[in-house]
Amino acid sequence: MTVGSFLIAIEDPKGRVVATLERTSRAGRPAAGDELALDGQLYRVERVRWEDEPEDRTVRRYLNARLFVRAVGREPRVLPLRKRR
Fold first, then answer.
1. Could you tell me if residue 28 is left (phi over 0), alpha (psi between -120 and 50 degrees) or otherwise beta?
2. Of 5, 33, 47, 72, whose Cβ has the fewest other Cβ atoms within 10 Å?
3. What distance in Å separates the CA atoms of residue 67 and residue 50, rounded to the nearest whole number?
4. Is pLDDT of 56 > 70?
5. What is the DSSP string of 13-77?
6. Where are the domains of the chain?
7. Which of 23, 9, 27, 6 is nearest to 69 (CA)?
8. pLDDT tens digits for range 17-43
C-alpha cells in the first residue's frame, strides 16, 4: 500500500466482501455514515477499521484505514408530511 492511501472493502447486502479497492484522498479520511462515489456508483461507509501496516519500512509503526462500504439503494429521500389538525 502507498503512503496516504486506504483500502475500501465493498460489501454485499449480507455483509460479505465482494471487492477491495485502494484509493488515495486529499480530502481526508471518510467516516462511518459518509457517502462515496466510486466508479459511478454511490456507497455508504458502514464502518472503519484501523490496521497495522504489514510492511515495516522503518522503526515507526503506521496504521492504514480499511473502509467497509455498501451500495446505496435508490429509495427516495423524502420526509413524510403530517396532517394538520
1. left
2. 33
3. 9
4. no
5. TTS-EEEEEEEE-SS----TT-EEEETTEEEEEEEEEEEE-SS--SSS--EEEEEEEEEPP----
6. 5-71
7. 9
8. 999 998 887 767 789 999 988 888 899
> Residue 19: what are its φ and ψ, rounded to 5°?
-160, 155
Which residue type, as a one-letter code, is found at position 52?
D
Q: How far is CA 31 from CA 28, 56, 77, in A?
A: 9, 26, 21
Q: How many CB atoms lie within 10 A of CB 69?
A: 24
**Cα–Cα distance for residue pair 6/3, rounded to 1 Å:** 9
- Return the pLDDT at 74: 60
